[in-house]
Amino acid sequence: MTTNPDRPRLGIDLGTTTTCVCVVDDSGEARVLANREGGTTTPSAVYFDSDGTAVVGGDALGQRGQEPGRVITEIKREIGGHYTVAVPGGHLRPEHVSALILQQVVEEALEALGVAEPADGPLASAVITVPAYFGTEERARTLEAGRMARLDVIDLINEPTAAALASGLRGTRSGRAVLVYDLGGGTFDVTIVRMFPQEVRVVATGGDARLGGADWDLALIDLVLDRMGDLPDQDDPRTSPRLMADLLGQVQGVKAALSTSTEQSVTARTARGRVHHVVISRNDYEKATSDLLDRTIDFTGDLIEQVRGLGVLSIDDVLLVGGMSRTPAVARRLAETFPRLPAPQLAADPELVVAKGAAQVAAGEARKIVDVTSKGYGVLITRDAGRPSSGSAVHWIIAPNTPLPTSGRHTLCIVRDGQTAMRIVVYESTTDVLSEDEADHIRLDEHTMEGLPRDSRRGDPVELDFSLGADGVLRIEAHAANGARLRIETQVRGGAADTVAPLPGLRR
Fold it and tell me: Residue 416's CB: how many other CB atoms inside 10 A?
């Protein structure tokens, strides 16, 4: 795809539950581009019709009550994995579903700008945001989704970093330390950045790519069902996808309303039509979701301790980002647990600030960004037999929260005389806590290095160089004394089995 400098440069927050598109206008302000319904965000939902077309956004969510099995939501949680969606002609992987969402919101953004869609080439140039905790595979597949949506993807940027850029907080010569607590619809990130006048430097990041508002929804559903009492199997609403889709929509509204009100009600129906009116107070809601909030507080505490070892002894600002951060319990629990921190401040437009930061980067108006890797990268090694620690283990070459770009080296050894090939297995950590047990982590790539000398001896070295770029792509080079080499660049791999279907057309 050839970059067209005349195309709009957009910032896109591709969220788990909603997606937002922004652009920097002629006045230098980042503004949201409304969708066709006039909304500032579009639900990240896709409905696959029986005629082979796809519907994105609010109209897709509207089908949950009629055909819930055809409506795909929270696809961002599956990207990088083996989840597939069955459609006529085969299966779609998460990046394909994400591409449909991106294509729809960008087409509507062009309408808002009054810009015609080109017959070929990119629709627009874009910076797309991702959770700070996304690893190599998730980032690679997000890039692929952008390309399939006919976007010239300028870059990916971590969501908390984008929020810090758009927050309006000024940098200082000593580096203003900002804790960004980002609780969105499907992911949680906590990041500490230092803001300088011309640069934003990420110090460390942590979080969970499967913790967000969707989990609060499920906790509320459980609360409502519990209030309905013991029901016979034939009356249980869980047996009806339509009833559960309706209940989900109601609790999502209740969750948002309880940010400002103290009590809300839900009208729940049993499978045989009996109606239950369930009243939920804010206190009920907070108790039902306290364990989820506890997890975010634990991540935050761990990160604060971690950055002390990196020289960040005090925090100047606490910035709350993401729609879920509007929940009053968030600021209250942070203040109670960390009394030495500044009072948490809700970002202006917490649901939109990430997209605005991405737009600033796309327009070239943001400060320089120095990011870190949220994961560790290493290689499987075999220890000598007969030692207490013999067997396979992961040796880590790049540690989590290392500034990007970065590199590392490790020397592997030939394990037997006359060995002419070596298997190299690359691992990515699942969290920022490293262990040697390969079962705890993700096998990222595997290749065999051929051409080692036939007269090789046990213990002969093979040098292994890791290089992780600011783009999040891991590049590896292995080389032996005789000149044998192996180069690896992590690539997007196919999903589970099954034929990949053509990308469906969007219903206009």
Answer: 9
Q: Quick one: tokens of 326?
A: 């509007």
In this structure, what token pair is assigned to residue 443?
């096998």
Helices (H), 206-327: 213-227, 241-257, 282-288, 290-308
Which amino acid, one-letter code, is at 19? T
What residues contact 130, with CB distance under 8 A and at least 6 apart?
Answer: 14, 138, 139, 142, 156, 157, 158, 159
Burial class of residue 242, CB neighbours in 10 A (0-12, 13-18, 19+): middle
Look up residue 233 and give its amino acid: D
CB burial of residue 291 (10 Å; 0-12, 13-18, 19+): exposed
Q: What is the pLDDT of residues 282-338, one digit of tens each?
A: 999 999 999 999 999 999 999 999 999 989 999 999 999 999 999 999 999 999 999
**pLDDT tens for residues 252-282?**
999 999 999 999 999 999 988 889 999 999 9
Whether residue 466 contacts residue 398, with contact meaning beta carbons closer than 8 Å, is answered with yes
* Total H helices, total E strands in the chain: 10, 28
23 phi, psi to nearest 5 deg = -145, 150
**Which spans in 280-378 are helix H?**
282-288, 290-308, 328-337, 353-362
Sequence length of the chain is: 508
SS3 percent helix, strand, coil of the chain, rounded to 5, is 30, 30, 40
For the chain, what percent of residues have pLDDT higher than 70?
Answer: 95
Q: What is the pLDDT of residues 109-125, one digit of tens each?
A: 999 999 999 988 999 99
Q: Which residues contact 121 (CB under 8 A, 6 or more apart)?
A: 1, 2, 4, 7, 150
> Which domains does the chain show, CATH number per domain?
1-167+350-369 (3.30.420.40), 213-288 (3.90.640.10), 377-489 (2.60.34.10)
